[in-house]
């Protein structure tokens, strides 16, 4: 390996002029980042530069992918380079996306009868208030689609679900216009049609068994009784016409069975005979 000596800086200001002392042959060496890292003895930076040079993704392609909606981490993973290198080229594009999302909030949603008087940001803020969402926690972003038009996206969290709504944005006079691209975007543009979900009432659990009525709860049919009923336990036998009071005193009172009154037969009534039935 031949040793070269430094002659000086080239007239272009970007290269060093080297010379072979033996042959007087001169060489031109670009004064790039690798040379500066080598002059500092930064071995780690030299290795990183080699990895970056092996990547086939150029700065223009990096910016195109960022503008199309990819993140810095996604592009770095696809290119096989560090996020720091991607950030250097992605930074101006990310600013462009952020600025476009901000402008879209001042655009007017297009409805059936024409552009709305209110802006997109005003309509969405009202819709979030109707639904009880925190509008300050929502995040806006924008990217350029394959057709060259800007797409604006709103991301927000409701409960445990992550939600998104997309609009197409056309810059123009008075803030431009936006058109809904999905169902979430259409719903947010019509906040007055929102119906709050009903609260489900909790019902008591069904009992495992049905209570059957007991025998005591069932009323037995009562026997047809006369108008001058006495006690159910003791009841006097009807008196036959023509009998004396003395006979009545001698005759003992008979206890009738409960709910079964003793009624004399017609023969006993006609013959004047008192019959005792057990």
TrEMBL record:
Domain of life, per lineage: Bacteria
Sequence segments annotated as region (Disordered): 211-278
Record-annotated DUF3071 domain positions: 1-169
Pfam families assigned: DUF3071
Database matches in InterPro entries: DUF3071, SepH-like
Name of the protein in its database record: DUF3071 domain-containing protein
Organism of provenance: Amycolatopsis dendrobii
Upper classification of the organism: Bacteria, Bacillati, Actinomycetota, Actinomycetes, Pseudonocardiales
């Amino acid at each position: 390996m031949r040793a070269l000596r430094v002659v000086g800086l080239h007239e272009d200001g970007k290269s060093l002029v080297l010379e072979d002392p033996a042959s007087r042959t001169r060489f031109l060496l670009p004064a790039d980042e690798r040379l500066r890292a080598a002059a500092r003895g930064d071995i780690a930076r030299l290795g990183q530069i080699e990895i970056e040079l092996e990547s086939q993704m150029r700065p223009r392609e990096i910016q195109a992918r960022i503008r199309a909606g990819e993140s810095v981490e996604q592009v770095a993973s696809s290119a096989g380079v560090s996020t720091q290198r991607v950030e250097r080229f992605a930074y101006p594009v990310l600013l462009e996306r952020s600025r476009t999302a901000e402008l879209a909030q001042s655009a007017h949603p297009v409805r059936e009868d024409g552009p709305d008087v209110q802006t997109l940001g005003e309509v969405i803020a009202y819709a979030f208030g109707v639904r009880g969402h925190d509008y300050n926690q929502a995040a806006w972003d924008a990217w350029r689609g394959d057709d060259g038009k800007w797409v604006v996206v709103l991301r927000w969290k409701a409960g445990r679900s992550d939600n998104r709504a997309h609009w197409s944005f056309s810059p123009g006079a008075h803030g431009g216009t936006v058109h809904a691209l999905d169902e979430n975007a259409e719903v947010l543009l019509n906040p007055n049609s929102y119906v709050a979900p009903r609260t489900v009432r909790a019902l008591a659990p069904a009992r495992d068994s049905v209570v059957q009525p007991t025998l005591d709860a069932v009323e037995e049919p009562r026997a047809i009784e006369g108008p001058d009923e006495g006690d159910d336990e003791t009841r006097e036998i009807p008196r036959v016409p023509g009998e004396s009071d003395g006979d009545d005193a001698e005759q003992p009172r008979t206890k009738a069975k409960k709910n079964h009154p003793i009624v004399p037969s017609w023969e006993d009534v006609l013959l004047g005979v008192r019959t005792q039935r057990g």
